[in-house]
Amino acid sequence: MPELPEVEALRGFLGERVVGREVERVYPVAVSALKTYDPGVADLEGRTFEGVERYGKFLGLRAGELYLVMHLARAGWVRWSEKLPDGPPRPGKGPLALRVRLAGPEGAGFDVTEAGTQKRLAVHVVRDPADVPGIARLGPDPLAPEFTREVFAALLAGERRQIKGVLRDQSVIAGIGNAYSDEILHAARMSPFKLAARLSEEEVGLLHDVLGSTLREAVERSRGLPLRDLKAEKKSGLRVHGRKGEPCPVCGDTIREVSFSDSFLNYCPTCQTGGKPLADRRLSRLLK
């Protein structure tokens, strides 16, 4: 799933290529991905993209008074082409959900795709990004200057949930998903099961610092890469997430996994839990 660093890289990549260019045609291929109909995607045609913005894990392309807002969910992606195929795409069972063709040079534009059978990609055309329910409920952006230690501490105060679930909650902090929450907690040497409200002042400060540095480093690694390379860069840069059975790069202990019905977490017992393995039964309410 694209998280804050990958969406930020997408924002920069598309910003360099679409700003100042007119939308010639928009082809909605997977109608299930469209979450708004008035205005519709056709209302973007003839308008010029004026900016590309990020809201947590949402990507927004501003065209005059309208915004094309996308949430790529678990398996969505954006694919840029200097020469899109001629003619309209045919609806079918492939991954293509939306195609945006730009005017001049002829054929340039991008596809929005979604792999797999679980279709969760969401495309909105709105006059205000806050009209998208997911954006309206977002917490603060962790890369914003105003996301201080004091702000972070206030968000955690009184939180009775485990810290892993809090970091993933978009209404608390915008943009962090399953992968980077694992990376942040590993870098902070903190158990994913620790209750947020029980963190000491020192632990809150450490977690705040590590959170920012982990995300900024991931953004820098992704900056300037072609879109086709971003997923591979994310995977190669992760130290614990998705690395079950591999040695921890810090201490050499074996990285463990706890599985859920539709996701998993990874951690190092030596670095994070005092050498004790975590049991699945303790996660019954982790990600609710």
UniProtKB/TrEMBL annotation:
PROSITE patterns: FPG_CAT, ZF_FPG_2. Transmembrane segments: none annotated. Pfam families: Fapy_DNA_glyco, H2TH, zf-FPG_IleRS. SMART domains: Fapy_DNA_glyco, H2TH. The keyword Zinc-finger applies. CDD domains: BaFpgNei_N_1. Belongs to the FPG family. PANTHER family: FORMAMIDOPYRIMIDINE-DNA GLYCOSYLASE. It catalyses: Hydrolysis of DNA containing ring-opened 7-methylguanine residues, releasing 2,6-diamino-4-hydroxy-5-(N-methyl)formamidopyrimidine. Its cofactor is Zn(2+). The keyword Disulfide bond does not apply. This is DNA-(Apurinic or apyrimidinic site) lyase /Formamidopyrimidine-DNA glycosylase. GO terms for molecular function: 8-oxo-7,8-dihydroguanine DNA N-glycosylase activity; damaged DNA binding; DNA-(apurinic or apyrimidinic site) endonuclease activity; lyase activity; zinc ion binding. Keywords: DNA damage, DNA repair, DNA-binding, Glycosidase, Hydrolase, Lyase, Metal-binding, Multifunctional enzyme, Zinc, Zinc-finger. Residues 239-273 form the FPG-type domain. Residues 2-93 form the Formamidopyrimidine-DNA glycosylase catalytic domain. One of its GO terms (biological process) is base-excision repair.
